């Protein structure tokens, strides 16, 4: 007889139990399960969010103490301005302040879609003088978005959307471990940022062939990279981690979720835009991490959201359901005066990596 599988530990359980006990509750008392009718769960699970917030704050405090023990910054870089857009748990700007407490940090930004990340917050931007933060750029180097407008009318594809999605899933590899049917060749593929541009252009061209039609317009931008830029008359290295460049007149493509609208926007000239280091959001921004989204929401809720919006989905997972994210219009509202929306894009068919496809770089 095989042994029963060991229950996977919850990293927040111990803290959640402690908080429940301190509040005068029995952490093992049974309560109705929030997402499984007829089932129960221990009371301590209702304290998970509070436990996560408390633990994040403790980690931020520890990191701050470690930063303070390093070699002090030169006086001209101490107390450099940090501009925070939108509302965040305190741990997110705290993580950013920790980053800016090291090295030649001239200015920093937390965009309204920001959240905790590895080393530097996602949605975070830092301008350095004479140096680059490799950890700030992160693992997902030159991650970005590309949007293409075809001259193909919607009526020409409306009746074959399912076939198009199936062709995309068959032609394009998602995640790690799959091999495209066609060998990918491009003169810019071994070359960092250009490599990423080439990869996205290859994917978009294959999708264009499937749909048909010619390209009428395209917008392409990175949102994870370091770039040499001029700000306030100074040549600086700007590290964007999950942030879209938005210089005056520069267009960008910002997605929502699989079940929400996306936008084409452009930067404008303003004092707020300067303070933002001419940067804006790269998406709607997470409210819940991937594991928490799987615990909190159901497949029925996810499916109903997509049904109401009229979106056909190929792939995807509950961890990327729309309910786990902020709403893009609310996020963009915090950046009013730094960008303007040129076009709103309405999704009707979405192809993504499926739950069985491995992507080690999901944030």
Description:
With 363 residues, the chain is of the alpha+beta class. Helices cover 29% and strands 25% of the residues. It has 10 helices and 16 strands. The chain has helices at residues 13-22, 48-68, 91-100, 134-137, 161-171, 192-211, 271-275, 290-296, 299-309, 328-333; strands at 30-32, 40-42, 82-84, 105-115, 122-128, 144-150, 215-222, 224-231, 234-241, 243-245, 251-254, 262-267, 279-281, 312-316, 339-345, 349-354. It has a 5-stranded mixed β-sheet, with helices on one face. Strands 11-12-15 form a 3-stranded antiparallel β-sheet, with no helix packed on it. A two-stranded antiparallel ribbon has the order 1-2. Helix 3 links the parallel strand 3 (82-84) and strand 4. The model has no long low-confidence stretch (mean pLDDT 87).
């Amino acid at each position: 007889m095989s042994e029963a599988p060991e229950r996977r530990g919850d990293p927040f359980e111990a803290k959640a139990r402690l908080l429940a006990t301190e509040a005068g509750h029995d952490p093992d008392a049974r309560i109705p399960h929030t997402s499984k009718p007829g089932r129960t769960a221990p009371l301590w699970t209702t304290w998970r969010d509070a436990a996560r917030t408390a633990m994040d704050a403790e980690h931020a405090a520890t990191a701050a103490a470690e930063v303070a023990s390093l070699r002090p910054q030169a006086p001209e870089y101490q107390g450099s301005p940090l501009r925070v857009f939108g509302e965040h748990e305190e741990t997110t700007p705290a993580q950013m302040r920790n980053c800016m407490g090291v090295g030649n940090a001239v200015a920093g930004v937390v965009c309204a879609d920001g959240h905790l990340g590895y080393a530097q917050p996602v949605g975070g931007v830092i301008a350095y003088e004479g140096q680059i933060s490799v950890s700030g750029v992160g693992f997902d180097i030159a991650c970005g978005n590309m949007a293409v407008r075809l001259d193909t009318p919607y009526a020409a594809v409306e009746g074959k959307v399912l076939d198009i999605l199936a062709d995309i899933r068959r032609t394009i590899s998602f995640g790690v471990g799959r091999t495209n049917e066609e060998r990918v060749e491009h003169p810019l593929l071994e070359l960092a940022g250009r490599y990423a541009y080439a990869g996205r252009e290859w994917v978009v061209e294959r999708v264009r062939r499937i749909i048909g039609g010619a390209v009428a317009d395209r917008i392409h931008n990175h949102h994870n990279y370091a770039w040499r830029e001029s700000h306030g008359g100074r040549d600086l290295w700007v590290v964007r981690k999950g942030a879209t460049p938005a210089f005056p007149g520069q267009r960008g493509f910002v997605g929502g979720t699989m079940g929400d609208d996306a936008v084409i926007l452009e930067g404008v000239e303003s004092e707020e835009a300067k303070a933002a280091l001419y940067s804006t959001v790269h998406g709607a921004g997470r409210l819940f991490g991937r594991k928490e989204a799987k615990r909190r929401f159901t497949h029925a809720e996810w499916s109903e959201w997509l049904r109401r919006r009229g979106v056909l989905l190929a792939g995807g997972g509950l961890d990327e359901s729309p309910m786990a994210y902020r709403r893009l219009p609310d996020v963009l509202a915090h950046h009013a005066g730094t960008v303007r929306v040129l076009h709103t894009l309405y999704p009707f068919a979405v192809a993504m990596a499926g739950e069985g496809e491995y992507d080690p770089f999901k944030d």
